[in-house]
Amino acid sequence: MTPILLIGCDGQVGWQLQRALSPLGAVTAVDRAQCDLADPVAIRGVIAALKPRIIVNAAAYTAVDRAESEPELAQAINATAPTVMAEAAKPLGALLVHYSTDYVFDGSKPTPYVESDPTCPLSVYGATKRDGEDGILAAGGRALIFRTSWGFGARGQNFVKTILRLAGEGRALRIIDDQVGAPTPAALISDVTGQILAATRRGTEIGDARLYHLTAANPVSWCGFAREILRQAAATPGLEGLPASESVAAIGTVDYPTPARRPMNSRLDCSRLENDFGLDLPDWRPFLSRMLQLLALKKSNGY
Ligand SMILES: NC(=O)c1ccc[n+]([C@@H]2O[C@H](COP(=O)([O-])OP(=O)(O)OC[C@H]3O[C@@H](n4cnc5c(N)ncnc54)[C@H](OP(=O)(O)O)[C@@H]3O)[C@@H](O)[C@H]2O)c1
Known about the structure:
This protein is α/β, with parallel strands linked by helices and 303 residues long. The chain contains nine helices and twelve strands. Strands 2-1-3-4-5-10 form a six-stranded parallel sheet, sandwiched between helices. The protein has a two-stranded parallel sheet with strand order 6-9.
């Protein structure tokens, strides 16, 4: 069986990848305790010991605002670590799969970003993720880099859970309405990764490093996302009783200052990925519905 190394198996995407990668080979899944990305020696050691054919890196420093005050740590995890992985993968001929972000862009483009658009991050997080992409591309091995946006899923912390919590506490919801992007389910990211890796087994050659945009369809503002969460929650048995979606007030980015600046336009054009692999990226809303049903089940069962 193909040896596959999954790094960061306990994050939102990593958790889903444990499932999506399992039909493709023998998956060795490691978390922070088994492979600390702040330690390049540990990364090289894990790769040398397993000699994987495929390395999937789902780990990252994802605390966007905290990164502003921890730039060295964010750089080590988001830039140095993937570069080390790419350098270690190259002599093995292994394929490295890595994830990046819409935050590599400044959001000033009026239309969705394509892969060839110049990057211009506004934040430390965005800059470190951009440096990670550059490090992988410079290593010159085989790699797939998927830029995604606004991740959510039943496991892990994300915007959906924050909205449900704040609404449940009866807090007034004032949410930014002038930043637009595509909420993207962790399950979709992992399933598309699995589909593309399956295509490489059937003969689609990935001989170099390739960059793709990978998000769900139908971008929305954060405020529109919050309203859809509450609209769907009202229709989910077990989650009723939260404030109505109309109670979410739309505010501007200027009304909600954060340590890290974020792009106003986070929309990513995914046609390169859809065309190269014959995929149609779906709407995020049905995934939200399934997530809410899972959360309701968990709430009612108490486990
Ligand atoms: N979530 C989003 O909105 C979003 C948007 C765009 C792009 N992305 C990208 O998508 C990828 C997956 O993100 P995600 O949403 O799954 O993030 P996540 O839920 O925050 O998971 C990140 C994982 O990285 C691990 N990690 C952090 N520091 C580490 C270290 N020093 N050594 C080893 N592991 C470490 C974390 O481990 P602990 O649990 O031990 O902290 C966690 O399991 C990342 O590359 C991210 O940049 C995410």
